[in-house]
Design a protein that fits this description.
By secondary structure, this protein is mainly α. Helix content is 81%, strand content 0%. Helix 1 packs antiparallel against helix 4 and helix 3 runs antiparallel to helix 4. The longest helix is centred in the middle third of the chain and has 40 residues. The relative contact order is 0.17.
Length: 150
């Protein structure tokens, strides 16, 4: 999935979220038992687990890129790949921080008619963005060709 498709997914999600909040906010408010239970410690646990596992995987990918460069004697030959990897790691960390902020702010805004639904949909947006980042990392890994020993 390329960046264009990812951006389209995010824009479609935002459009659908605005439509749901405008027409049926109770579907995504704390009246929905799943949303009430999910956007809290469960949400942070999911994001934290994804972050921990993925950062370890990113470190391994980085080390493997070092080995590939050493094997072929091309230092800096995979700079675009490394930049993509760093950006994905930064996004995952940023999304985790955003998730903490959503969970911390949700109790303060849930008393309003739209505050709870917007907080819940923001959490789902963060989760969708996480999935798109993981997809990007997965595609990067599958683009690393096998290397032959010299």
């Amino acid at each position: 999935m390329n960046k264009t498709i990812s951006f389209c997914c995010l824009i479609i999600y935002i459009g659908a979220s605005v439509s749901v909040v405008a027409s049926r906010p109770e579907w995504v408010s704390d009246q929905n038992k799943f949303m009430l239970d999910f956007v809290g410690s469960q949400f942070l646990a999911i994001l934290g687990t994804i972050l921990a596992i993925t950062l370890a995987s990113i470190a391994n990918i980085h080390l493997e890129l070092n080995k590939i460069e050493e094997r072929f004697g091309v230092e800096g030959g995979l700079e675009k790949t490394r930049r993509n990897l760093r950006q994905n790691a930064a996004w995952l960390i940023g999304l985790f921080v955003a998730g903490i902020m959503v969970v911390a702010i949700k109790p303060l805004v849930s008393s309003t008619a739209l505050g709870g639904p917007v907080a819940n949909l923001s959490a789902l947006f963060i989760l969708l963005f996480h999935i798109l980042q993981l997809t990007s990392i997965m595609q990067l890994v599958f683009q690393i060709p096998p290397t032959m020993k010299r």
